[in-house]
Design a protein that fits this description.
single chain; alpha+beta; Peroxidase, domain 1; Glutaredoxin; 2 domains; four-stranded mixed β-sheet
Length: about 180
Amino acid sequence: MTELSREYAEALFAIACEEKAEKEYSEALEKVSEALRENPEYMDFLLCPGIPATERLSAVEEAFSGFLPENVVFFLQLLCEKGRIQLFEGCVKEYNKLLDASMYISTAKITSAVELTQDEKKRLQSKLEKMIGHSVVMECIIDPSVMGGVLIETEGRVIDGSLRRHLHEVKEVIGR
């Protein structure tokens, strides 16, 4: 499903680029995402095969026309019409990845055993930006199994500076 979400997101992103409205479309997608989170029964309605497709498409138009770009509304209707509205959240994530890449922004997932201080976050972000060569948005996660240090995942790379990895390496050396 991720591949399909990426294809839909790429198509919408191409349209947004033609209109020079990439950020506007992203904001619109976030509004829809928020509305669906606040009203989960609406997603159930859009997924219900017992409700005629024309009624579901009309409901999307009624709910979102006027305050979202027209092509974003068409995008939602297309997902409904093709029976793929459940891919919406994946499409939003993929769209935002494309937007970040176009703006030279990378996302880094930072996993640590305890919450990092603001100063530690700032220093880590600065080092990552120097290493990657452009802006980095950090997503910090706390996972006690890391034990100490940090695990960094960005741009398909993993930098494992965790205590868990160091202990595993010591265990490997001792076990020989």
